[in-house]
Amino acid sequence: MKAKYIFVTGGVLSGIGKGITAASIGNVLKNAGFNVNIQKCDPYLNVDAGTLNPGEHGECFVTVDGAETDLDLGHYERFMDVELTAASSLMSGQVLQQVIADERAGKYLGKTVQIIPHVTGAINESIQRTAEGFDIHIVEVGGTVGDYEGLSFIQAIREISMDVGRENCVFVHVVYLPYLGASGELKTKPAQNAVRELRGLGIVPDILVARSEYEPPQEAVEKLSLFCGVEREAIAVLPNAKSIYEVPLSLNNQGIGEVVMSKLSLGAKKPDLTDWKQLVQRATDTSADVVTIGVVAKYLNNQDTYMSVFEALKAAAWSQDYSVDIQWIDAEKITTANAAELLASVDGIVVPGGFGTRGLDGKIAAAQYALKNKLPYLGLCLGLQMAVVAAARNAGLTDATSTELDPEAAHPVVHTMDHQKGKEATGGTMRLGNYSCVLEKGSKAAKVYGATKVQERHRHRYECNNDYRESYSSWGIQASGLSPDGDLVEVIEALDHPFFIATQAHPELASRPTKPHPLFQGFIDSIISRT
Length: 531
Description:
Blueprint: E1 4-10, H1 18-30, E2 36-42, H2 54-57, E3 61-62, E4 68-69, H3 72-80, E5 89-91, H4 92-104, H5 115-131, E6 136-141, H6 151-164, E7 169-177, E8 179-180, E9 185-186, H7 189-200, E10 207-212, H8 218-228, E11 235-239, H9 247-253, H10 256-263, H11 274-283, E12 289-297, H12 307-318, E13 322-330, H13 339-342, E14 348-351, H14 360-373, E15 377-380, H15 382-394, E16 400-402, E17 411-415, E18 431-439, H16 444-449, E19 453-460, E20 463-464, H17 472-475, E21 477-482, E22 489-494, E23 500-503, H18 518-530
Parallel strand pairs: 1-6, 1-7, 2-5, 2-6, 7-10, 10-11, 12-13, 12-14, 14-15, 15-23, 16-17
Antiparallel strand pairs: 3-4, 8-9, 17-20, 18-19, 18-21, 21-22, 22-23
């Protein structure tokens, strides 16, 4: 059977939850037994998300094959419990690069190269290629309908509906219903205009998902149906929820899964959402005991920057019927002198990844404090590198550092390896995607994982300097995880500590709300055992 398509677009304004909506539809259909794939089409002219400012755009989510993508792929993976690849992320920059390369290679046989049919055709080809082998392929188009940069994607999905047949496509449009406090009413006019804009581009939505701050009255939904030409049963309302994980249940309860299956002639299958209902119960339990985690961070103006880290912490806490209170600690403000004061209220700390010199001293100070005071510590990527520096400094090597912080350091315990030098600005030194790691038998890391051979996703450039590895034991740490050839330090842990583990990888990317990652689970469990 050829794939059926679900296209998710957005109107009125950005950031209203298209990614959560697409992931939630995928969740319902996957739990109904369908083989579902999902893809994000992003109109930005970037080639990938690797150079986007995380403070503005949120985290860069890395796939198993090393693609640097938009954070929506993280939602897709968590909601659908899948591992996606580079094929699930398509940015305008990629498309334009390919079209220009094809033109230079003479593949267009001398024709003038145009947005239609060449750019739209390249988008169309990518989407249909990514859909191969699946029952259903969900495509989220980023941005807001009407944006200039998104028009080629809108045209491309319209062309696909013509290629595969309108009966094999469902168009889902996510709109926003603003609330006017002065009159105390939700307004539908912006949503009506957004639908008219989409219709003007040749696409008639089959399903409307209406986001709002409050529960809309019935007459608002009736007005949407009347003026947007969408059946009442094909309109779902999504007021703000206590947890984003409620959305699949809400869409299912409103019959959207049934509408999709009916419109795509897939038969009526009832999804098994038992595990998801239990998850939501735990996630919204206000009576649960709380663990307080300090995240020593440098990107503080957007909580989406650490989306996967936060969700991994929540999942681990929920699995033990706890909730988690995440406190942001500014890495630029913490020092060895004030660490005790700033960390006094937390039960454990996480030092996540990042790039650049800003805040590195604070992350080192936090790791030093955790080592000295037996405070549970989980280091992720940069959090491992700063932990090694912290251990060296605590042991008396006070000028130990990373060459990221001081390129002329006398004791660069973390550095750029010789074969990587000179490529720092090219991306050629970045380790991206899945890499294997061998854990030392009997180590705390091996016990936490329950295995000695693991794979994790990476996104970093700097490595531990092997010239100092023999000093680790005198610093109170050990390299408990190495690359299979023994050349790279992948995991370190403190020798005499309840829980101090750091990894070069980003294990948060593999965590699932119903399947917490072992490192996060071990971290949370170590805190609970101390309380």
